Amino acid sequence: MARSRFLPDNFTLALLGTVTLASLLPAHGVAAQALEGLTVAAVALLFFLHGAKLSRDAIVAGLSHWRLHLVVVATTFVLFPLLGWALRPVLQPLVTPGLYTGILYLCVLPATVQSAIAFTAMARGNMPAAICSASASTLLGIVITPLLVGLVLPDVPAQGGSAQPDTLASIGRITLQLLVPFVAGHLLRPWIGNFVKQRAAVLKFVDQGSILLVVYTAFSAAVVEGLWGQLPLPALLGLVLVCAVLLAMALVSTTWAARRLGFSKEDEITIVFCGSKKSLASGVPMAKVLFASHAVGAVVLPLMVFHQMQLMVCAVLAQRYAQRPVPEQQAVTA
Questions:
Q1: Which SS3 state, helix, strand or coil, does residue 158 take?
Q2: Are 157 and 295 in contact, with CB atoms under 8 Å apart?
């Protein structure tokens, strides 16, 4: 029996089930550490397989796609901060002052890497450009985010000490989790490239599985830290509404800009998924360095809510993009 078009697809149902499971049975302690390691391994496998699949010409094309990268960087570090600042009269009354500080902090963070690339892969977007753009955003954020915090949040109590150790740690994590597996897979491409290409289902399983792992581990951490107990219901609803407004404006703006500037559909997908996201993995450690201990909780809570929301919404968008017809030439060469 055919499924009704009004029902969600299997992956969306899996995401909803994952969020529910994390809310009811969050991982903590040893289990959380084990899942974190499993998530790192899944992401590393994802990049290894994509490195084996992509040709050298495709990687060079991704690196040289400067117009796309410029749009993503401008969205991440210019549009988002402007939205958070310009919409203050509308957004601030919906939340507490501490939460609004967290919203502004959310707006100056770099883009997430793993989920942006995984969603781009699911949606059949420009994968080489997505890898380059998302990774570059994270590296740039190490420098740009602290500068923007000083500009838009000058009155927030700061944490003493240098941020250099966290900067080096972030670069190290990016290199180990993303670049090293990708390069290893690409170097092995002459021997395993055809094997990987002929097994597209493996790539799809790794793409979707890595997203489900990220959702569960991130949401578990938020629940363990008291996500549902830190706010009264009106403030929580206000925070959800604010995050929804920011995400909707980012998605609409990136889609409009990609089409207005004449990008292809594959490039549009990359711009939408790389330009509309904010990184929880980078945001929490940076908050611990940039802000005083008593301010960190309220600062990162909007990021945790936004992070879950962007995963859920972009999963649906990726599925819709993936349902578009495959061009005849691409179908022949696949």
A1: strand
A2: yes
